[in-house]
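2-keto-myo-inositol dehydratase
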Amino acid sequence: MTAVLRLGSCPDSWGVWYADDPRQTPWQRFLDELAGAGYRWLELGPYGYLPTDPGRLADEIAARGLRVTGGTVGGAGGPHGDFAAVLAETRRVAELTRAVGGTEVVFVPVPGYRDDRTGGYLEAAELGEGQWRVLLANSELLGRLLAEEYGLAFRFHPHADYQVEYQPQVERFLDGTDPRFVSLCLDVGHLAYRRADVLGLIGRYPERVGYVHLKQMDPDLANRATAEDLAFGQAVAMGVSVTAPAGVPEYPPLIEALTALGRDLFVVVEQDMYPCDFDTPLPIARRTHSYLTSLGGFA
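Predicted structure tokens:
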């Protein structure tokens, strides 16, 4: 048995990270261009960017021949922080996601321990033992809640400048959480940025790869960011996120490893374009879609 890899994209690939950014691509144009680039699957992105009325959103998506992979929780911080805020954001994303046919909730633990623009440290880069216990317990709670109350899967996204970013931290997170309720959004770009062995993680934790974000990084710029102690946002502004197949990890062996898992997966392109020319994301999206589909393995 081989996996069915369902290829999608999300608002990040059109330069949208915050729902209220006045520079961003208008949401109607984003949906039009997403479909025009050849994608058929959509991750909803930051809550409030797309319409939040379920009926209207469902109509807009269906009119373009799109379907929803899942919703995105971001902006509330990590589960070790203000858990009341995290829980409230998770619930409103879950309600909308379920209403429009999504099956996943991607949890992106931002903001992290640094300011993306200034590089200043907002908190320690390493969690203490007590914070780790809270992170693991709260992540399980979120996963159980999403499964039992909403019928959705919890996909935790390791993120640069959050305290689950390096491979040992990702492994500790997985080893300390219940696989029935917690799995990864395997963001291969963030992991490559922190020099993780992405294929090794897939091989060691095959059952914990529940969802995938595709992006590539310039390894030289990633190394420079580490050497100069730059925040991830500063590295992205320098161009560390590159268009496939220009960076790492290499996609052909990655797609082979994902296919070999033997189960269906959403594989969502998340191109961190910044500084972004908001007039030109469509050609990039088309080139990326064309390159990925040329590799085979996608439904």
